[in-house]
Amino acid sequence: MTPTPTALSELRRTFADPPADARPMMRWWWFGPDVTRDDIDRDLTAMAAAGVGGVEATCVYPLSADPDRYLSDAHLAALRHAAERAGELGLRFDLTLGTGWSFGGPHITPPYAARWLDWTYREIGPDAFEAPRRGWPEELIVGAYVGNGSLQERPDSYVPVPVTDDDIRVPAGVGPRVLLTATARPTGQNVKRAAFGAEGPVFDHYSAEATRLHLDAVGGPMVDAVGAERIGSVFCDSLEVYAADWTPALPEEFAARRGYRCEDRLWLLVTEHPDAAAFKTDYFRTLTELCEENFLVPMADWAHRRGLRLRVQSYGEPPVSLSSYRHVDLVEGEQWGWTRLPMTKWASSAAHHLGRDVVSSETWTWIHAPSFRATPLDLKGEAHEHALLGINQFIGHGWPCRSARTPGLGWLFYASGAFDDRNAWWPAMPGLMRYLQRLSWVLRQGEPVRDVLLYLPTADAYARFLPSIDLYTVSTELIPPEVPRALRQAGYDFDLVDDHFLAEREPALRPTVVLPFGAHLPAETRDRLAAIEAAGGLVVTADGGGDWLADLAAARSSDVVLTPASPDVGAVHRTTGEIDIWFLANTGPHSRRLSALFRDAPGRIERWDLSSGTVTPCVAGPDGIALDLAPYQGVVLVGHGAEEAGDGPDEAAEAAPGGSEVGLVDWRLESAHGTDLGPVSLPHRWEDDPRVGSAFSGTMSYTARLEDLPAGSAVLDFGPGEPDESEIALGAMEVGVYRARISPPVREVVEVLLDGRSLGVVWDAPWQIDLGEVRPGSTLTLRVSNTTANALAADPTVPQWAAEAERLHGRRFRMQALDRTLGGVSSGLARIPTLRG
C-alpha cells in the first residue's frame, strides 16, 4: 500500500519535533520522606530544562536525623506541591502506591501478612507417636505426613496423619520413619528500604482483603492529597514477595478450581514422586490465578474508580504469568540484553499480544555502578538494548531528591546511578533526552513485526518450583539461551507466548511457533498448535542442533538480512501498512560496515537521524542499504512507496573529496573559572596533571588558535574510541551491569565553540563535529567535562551520612560499590583532535 504524501510528510514533521509524552521519565527517590518545596522545585526545574518528561515519585529509607513521617500531613502536602509544580512545567507525575518494595507497612497485621509453607523433617521410630502442636500464635500446621525411611534415606512417598488443634498423632508403623510437617506461617518479610513510619510486614498478595487494606491505608491518602487529575499513572514495582506460597483461603480455592483437595497431597511439593509434577502445576497455577484475581484486579479496579491508570512490572514472586499483564493498563519491564530473555522481552511480548501502543522499561538500573560512573554513551547504549527488545518508553532509574542542607555531593540512592545535574557531563543531557524522545516516538508508530512466537514452558516451570516460585525466571531459564540468540542474529524478531495468549491466537493468521525442546504441552495447547499447523502455520521444536532454524528459514525468510552477519547489530521493525520503520543498532565497541536487506523492501528508503531529526534518502545496492555503524550507533530507516510532494528529504550529499588534514597540537588549558593554566600537551589526562588533580569533576577548557589554514568548511575529528573488553567486577547484589565497552577519545563530553559560538556537544561515536566555515585566525575552544566519579571518591561525607543513617534508623540499605568508584576512570582528551578540510 502506498502512503499518501500527507501521511509521510506528517510523520517526518513529527519526527523532527516529537510529542512531549515520548520523553524519558525518571524514578524520583524521596528519602525519608524529607524534602522541602525548594528541593522539589529545584529538581523538577532541572529535569524540565534537560528534556526529562516526568517523574515517578517513590519514597524510600530516611537519611536525615528528623525525617517527616510517611503519609504525614507534611509528606502529603509535599506530594501535592510536586504534582502541581510538575504540571506547571509540563511534566508527567506518576505515583508509587507504597514505599520501598514490596507493598506493606504497619497497617498489615499478622492475618494479612504474606505467608509460606515451612517444611520440617523429623525421624521417628515404628511406635505410635504424638507431637504437640506448638509455635507462634499466627502459625498453623496445615499438614502432617509420614513415610518409611530416614533422613539419610528419604521416603519415596508419604501418607497424611491426623492433625488436631493440640497435637499430631502418628499411628504405629514398621521400621524407621520420617514425619514431615507443613506449617503455614508469615514469611517474616518486611518492606525493604521503607520510609520512616512505614515499616511493617509485606502483605498477602493472594488476599483481596489485604490488597484493599493496603490501598485504603496508603493509596487512598496519597491520591486524595495529590488529586487524581494530576497523576499520570499509579505504579507497582516488580513483585518481590519472597517464597510466599500459601494463603489461608488456598485449600478452598484449590478445591473449587482444580476439583480435588490439596491438603493430603501437599507433600508432593517437596518430593520427587512421579505425581509431583502434575500436582505442583495445579498448585502453583492456583497461586497465579489468586494473585491475578486478588491483587492485580483489585488494584486496577481501585485505580479505575479514581480515573487512574495502573502501571505494573508484572513478574517475580508471587508467580504472575506473562498473560497476567492483561489485568493492568500500562505494561513495564526492566533489564537489557537484546539477544536474551530479560524482563523487557517479557513485558514487550505481553504488550504486543494485548495491542498496547506503549510499553515502558525501568532503564539504567545497574549501569556502570556505582553512582556517577555512568556516561551519556553508557545511557544511550543501554537504551538501544531496551529499544531492540520492543521498549518505547524509558523510565530512568533514577534521580535522587537531595536536600540542600546536606554537605558534599549530597544524598545518593544506595545502588545504581544518579542521573541528575550533579553529573559533570550534564551539558550532554538535553541532547541525549531529545535523542531518546525521537527513538521512543518513532517506535510507537504502526505495529510490531515479529515473525515468531517463542513458547514459554509454563507447566514445566511450575513443576520445577521451589525454592523459587518466580514464573518469569524459571520459565525463561528452561529456554536454552542459544534459541533467542539464534533467532535475533538470523534476522527474526519474536514474542514470548504462554498458553493463555496462544489460545487467543487465531490459527488462520498462520503464526510460526518455536517450542523449546522437551516442553510439556497441556492438552489445550496441543490442540491449538495442531489447528495452527492445519491452517498453514509452522510449529518447530528448537532441539540441540540447528535444523530447527533451517526449517524456519525454509518456511519464512528473515525480516532483516545483514551482510556480513554481525553478532553486535540488532534490528526491530514496525509497520503502519503503508510505511515501514526499522531501528538498527550496533551494540558493540567495534565499527561495523555492512548492508541491510529487508524482506518485502519498499520502493524508497530514507535515513532519519535521531540526533538532528533530519531525513536523507538512501540508495540501495544489490545487498540492500549500505551502513557504516560506529560503536553503539543507532539508525532509523524508513521505507515507503510515496511520490514526493513538496517537503521531502534533502538529496544525499556527495562525499567531499579528501582535503587537508591537520593535527591540532598547540593548546592552552583554562580552568572552569576562566583562569589560564598555561600550555598543555595532548593526549592529556587530568588525573596526571597537578593543575587539575584526580579529585576534580567539572569542566576544563582547551583553546587553540587556528592559523595557516585554508579557508573553507572543516570537520573536527576527535578520533576513534578503543574497545575495552575488560571485565566488570560485580558486587553481590549487582545483576546485569551495563557499560559501553569502549574508551572514548573524549572523557566524557565536549562542547565545541568556534570564535565563542557554540556548535554543539559531542559525546558519542563517531566523535566528530562539522565546524562549517573556518577562517585562519579563528579560536577553537573545547569545553571538556568528565564524570562526577572523581568528586565522589574524594567526598568523605557519603560514607559518613550513610553510617549515621544506619545508626539512627537501622540497616535499611548498604551503599554499593563505592570501593570501585575510580576503577578505570580517566578524564580529559585521550587523542589529538584532527581538523579535516
TrEMBL record:
Keywords: Hydrolase. InterPro entries: Ulvan_degrading_GH (IPR053161). It comes from the Bacteria. The keyword Hydrolase applies. One of its GO terms (molecular function) is hydrolase activity. PANTHER family: DNA-BINDING PROTEIN (PUTATIVE SECRETED PROTEIN)-RELATED (PTHR36848), SECRETED PROTEIN (PTHR36848:SF2). This is Glycosyl hydrolase. It comes from Microlunatus ginsengisoli.
